[in-house]
Amino acid sequence: MTTQDATSSIPSKRGSSALSMGPRKKASSSDPLVSHGRHFGRTVFALCNYPSLLTNGILRLEQMEDVPLEDFPAEERREHRVFEQLLDSYPGLLDRLKDGSEEEILHVGELIGKGAAGARGDDTKTLKSAILDWISPKGEAIQPHLHRNSKLDHGFNHELTGSLLCPAGLDWHDPRYVFFLTSVHGEMLVCGDQWPIFLYAHYVYDSDDPWSSLLRSRLLTCAYKHVFTSPSSVDKEPKATRSGNARLHGMNSVTIASIAYIATQVRFALSSSSVFSRTDTVTASETFYHSLLDLLEDPEECKEVDELLTWWNRQVFPTSSAAKRPISANSALSRIRQKRIALKRALNQDVVSS
Length: 354
Hints:
Blueprint lengths: L2 H6 L23 H12 L6 H14 L10 H16 L3 H7 L2 H34 L23 H7 L9 H8 L35 H11 L16 H4 L7 H15 L14 H12 L5 H15 L15 H22 L1
Helix pairs in contact: 2-6, 3-4, 3-6, 6-9, 6-11, 9-11, 11-12
């Protein structure tokens, strides 16, 4: 059977893609899955329709008894990877889903979704004010004044937030671009995959090397620490009396999705939009989030992504093994490694010569 035949034989009894935000529903009760959903949404996949993810995943497991995952469309393969990550992250979940009714599966999805939506809402609320402290000129007040409780004057309506949201490669100080960006009451007229300059360290973009300093700005690290380690850790002197979200969930390394999540939150915080919505065409948050994941999950970009994760772990989890700090040049460990390499080379030369 050809791949095309196999694909066409896959039953289509499935709703819309789970990797997009579905209609809002209220979960009726509290459950450990709610807490798990908070962390999963931040670190694995944020903008997700969890009832559909679970329903589609269980159905796909049955189909995979006859059809390998490789024969499914790319979007479904990606969705199934997220489904498997969810199963792996919560022991016993697969048995609960297999033994449960359709109503139980939907209920479990709603609980996880409640947690993810709650975390996203909490982060949106706290970052709205905190981000103004991080973008303020050192020792000065923002001029004109930016309100903390209203975002009407944010986004492209303001010189500071507008310059940070300006797409990389465009000149914010060029009147033609400013008009283009602000021609509809200051709303964002750029697509979600036109990345803003604030993603780059020191807000500098190199068109000849667009990977250079991407996703390494201080603004992003401040927001990441604020959400995952504690608001006080942003200043490198933790004062919080409670454990941060990372410690509560045993997180000791940065994930690709968590970087994309924080970038999406910062972009929204800088914008003039007041409500984070899946249908918001002003910020196009889903498109932005997915475009970052498309790059960071691309196998062709693995070298750059590995370097990026190492850099992030040094910023957020410096004592973790994931930080992969280089060995000191004159240390005993360095000398041991050097001697081992020299010995291997000598052995290899002996094998070749013999």
